[in-house]
């Protein structure tokens, strides 16, 4: 019951290719690579903000609580600028 040999892995790879096909596997690889790249870029941008001493900025919208029942939202950042 030891580890798997190279032949076991080749059979598993053959079964996966037969089930999904090469095009689907290529698309999965491309999507996975794009996700990893996006994660690394996000981590790099987050590190630059921390190095600058600035907190990451996010635009938030909240419901207008000034008594208006129209349900409109306002931009907090825009309201603070005035």
TrEMBL record:
GO molecular function: protein transmembrane transporter activity
Domain of life of the organism encoding this protein: Bacteria
Region (Disordered): 46-82
Pfam families reported for this sequence: TatA_B_E
Membrane topology listed for this record: Single-pass membrane protein
Gene3D superfamilies: 1.20.5.3310
Quaternary structure annotation from Swiss-Prot or TrEMBL: The Tat system comprises two distinct complexes: a TatABC complex, containing multiple copies of TatA, TatB and TatC subunits, and a separate TatA complex, containing only TatA subunits. Substrates initially bind to the TatABC complex, which probably triggers association of the separate TatA complex to form the active translocon.
Protein name as annotated: Sec-independent protein translocase protein TatA
Species of provenance: Corticibacter populi
């Amino acid at each position: 019951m030891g580890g798997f040999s190279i032949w076991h892995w080749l059979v598993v790879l053959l079964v996966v290719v037969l089930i999904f096909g090469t095009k689907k596997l290529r698309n999965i690889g491309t999507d996975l690579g794009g996700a990893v790249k996006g994660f690394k870029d996000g981590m790099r941008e987050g590190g630059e903000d921390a190095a600058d001493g600035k907190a990451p900025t996010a635009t938030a919208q909240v419901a207008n609580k000034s008594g208006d029942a129209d349900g409109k939202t306002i931009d907090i950042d825009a309201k603070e600028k005035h």
